[in-house]
Design a protein that fits this description.
Length: 226
């Protein structure tokens, strides 16, 4: 980007702007992030979030959706801005400011793919990351904290649960994201206060314990409760 200084008439070159997209999933009892492995350049063999530079003819949101599709083969999901990362030496290739985005998805509904610049694409446990490029480990850590806060006042967990589910299944999702065990009574009291669920008025049978009541989300799109 070039900016003309009206006093000196010199051209000032500003930093480039990029977007990086953090996609979370819960599977096999773990919170995972979708990562791609770089196959060449200064970050060869390190892992990174899907990302890229913003074009001059697109918005930040458009750029995030484009790079997610081009570099991970995923589209049609709700993305939310996470944070801006602008440390001077975050990228050895030049001065680049990153606007990060994040989302929570069910990985069973997607088949990620990537480009020739990347040698692999996989879901990796968010708390046990492989060697990371740039400051993407920091972005993931920030995203985990945002997700943990967000489940306290939204229905964002809908992305990980089927149409019908038990409260025990929902509690397990919360425990994986929060990284701790929850008291059953307090958890259900909290859900009642959030008012994001409604009973299906039917039971799930065939479990080892007694039949469990089934629930569904009032809305399967993001809702803020406060």
């Amino acid at each position: 980007m070039r900016i003309k200084n009206s006093k000196s008439e010199k051209l000032i070159f500003g930093p480039a702007v990029a977007v990086d997209v953090l996609i979370f999933d819960v599977n096999n009892g773990k919170l995972n992030a979708l990562l791609i492995r770089i196959s060449k350049g200064p970050y060869k063999n390190k892992w990174a979030l899907p990302g890229g530079l913003v074009r001059t003819d697109e918005t930040l949101d458009e750029a995030a959706k484009r790079v997610l599709w081009e570099k991970a083969g995923i589209r049609g999901i709700y993305l939310e801005q996470l944070y801006s990362f602008g440390e001077v030496k975050r990228d050895v290739r030049g001065r680049i400011i990153s606007i990060s985005y994040f989302a929570l998805v069910d990985s069973a509904k997607f088949q990620p793919r990537t480009t020739e610049y990347y040698s692999d694409i996989r879901w990796k446990e968010a708390k046990k990351l492989p060697p990371m490029a740039f400051d993407h480990g920091k972005i993931i850590a920030f995203g985990i904290e945002r997700l943990r806060n967000k489940i306290e006042y939204t229905n964002i967990a809908y992305a990980l649960l089927p149409k019908e589910f038990t409260l025990t299944e929902m509690q397990k999702i919360y425990e994986i994201i929060l990284g701790k065990k929850l008291d059953k009574r307090n958890f259900r009291k909290k859900l009642k206060m959030l008012n994001i669920l409604e009973p299906e008025k039917k039971m799930r049978h065939g479990l080892k314990s007694r039949p469990a009541e089934l629930y569904r989300f009032r809305k399967r799109s993001l809702v803020f409760t406060k």
